[in-house]
Amino acid sequence: MKIAARTLRVPILAALGAATLLILIASLFVGSVALSPAEVIAALGGQAGRIAQTLVLDIRLPRTLAAFATGGLLGLAGALMQILLRNPLADPFILGVSGGAAVGALAALLAGLGTMAITGSAFGGALISILIVFVLAHGRGSWAPTRLLLTGVVVAAGWGAAISLLLVLSPNATLRSMLFWLMGDLAYRAAWQTPLVLLAVALIVALPCARSLNVLARGEVQARAFGVSVRPLTIGLYIGASLLTAVAVVEAGTIGFVGLIVPHMIRLVGGSDHRLVLPGAALGGGALLTLADMLARSVAAPRALPVGVVTAAIGVPLFLYLLLRSRNTGQLG
């Protein structure tokens, strides 16, 4: 059975990795200025003209890597939250965690603080949001999906009111860029190094814990019976999901549904083994957000849409489908 699981895991990850690589390459060809394959290849080799070189190396490549890293962070954060809350509808956006991180980042930005302080403030907002979910949504026994969703709606509405207040207090010169950032935007930041490194470190830390996470996903009582250190593992999930969400929000604003869609799809294809789900969520999240960014750049070219609009267009129908499925089957996931 272990051999069969490994046999299934390897080809799924290989196929997902190949698809992700193709999407990353395709992203270099998409933009308001058309470039031929020869020009893109020459630019990557440093042998193209000045315009092509600038478009590929200074604009498209950093944005593509930033989209992949941000999507990977959101996909992995969604997978960790779904383990933490033992609910397939857990997602940083739906539960208000992204909103809390956005409030922290905006407050630090308006205070004139530096990048590290902005990231730290976003991290604090995300931590507070998950703490609220812990306190209010956990009833007796397992997590109740209805209470979880209601808590997320209330928390997200509260953070939305706080965001509105901060926008009212913002100077007019920066208001438009802040609005675009809140809708999910990769046009103004292409600092892909930090989120990409964090994504790699998070996977390196999380993958050795995959077996324990498989047991924890079935409940704390069963996890303790199998000798899993539940409290340290839960705290690690709590901090990890918050940090991943905070960095993603600072990088690209509040982008919804990536953390919901991707882990769920990985489970539908390959099962719930987190040795597959965690790297699959990272790869799939990066591929999905890169694809969404390609659409955002090309659908209304030369204007670019906020990438959060595209992910919402994909995520809302799927979210409604999951709710309808839970109504028909009496369970989620």
Your description of this structure?
With 333 residues, the protein is mostly helical. The protein has a single domain, classed as ABC transporter involved in vitamin B12 uptake, BtuC, CATH 1.10.3470. It is 76% helix and 0% strand. It is globular. The model has no long low-confidence stretch (mean pLDDT 85).
Name its key features.
76% helix, mainly alpha, 333 residues, ABC transporter involved in vitamin B12 uptake, BtuC
Which structural class do you get from the secondary structure elements?
A: mainly alpha
Task: Return residue spans where pLDDT drops below 50 for at least 5 consecutive residues.
Answer: none
Which range best describes the helical content: under 10%, 10-25%, 25-40%, 40-55%, 55-70% or over 70%?
over 70%
Number of helices: 14
Report the CATH architecture.
Orthogonal Bundle
CATH class placement: Mainly Alpha
> In angstroms, what separates the terminal alpha carbons?
23 Å
What is the oligomer described by this structure? Answer: single chain
Reported for the largest beta sheet, the result is:
none
**How many β-strand stretches?**
0
Shape summary: globular
Write the layout of secondary structure elements.
Elements: H1 2-27, H2 37-44, H3 50-85, H4 97-110, H5 115-137, H6 145-169, H7 172-182, H8 193-206, H9 210-216, H10 220-225, H11 230-252, H12 258-270, H13 274-298, H14 307-329
Helix pairs in contact: 1-13, 2-3, 3-8, 3-11, 3-12, 3-13, 4-5, 4-6, 4-11, 5-6, 5-11, 8-11, 12-13, 13-14
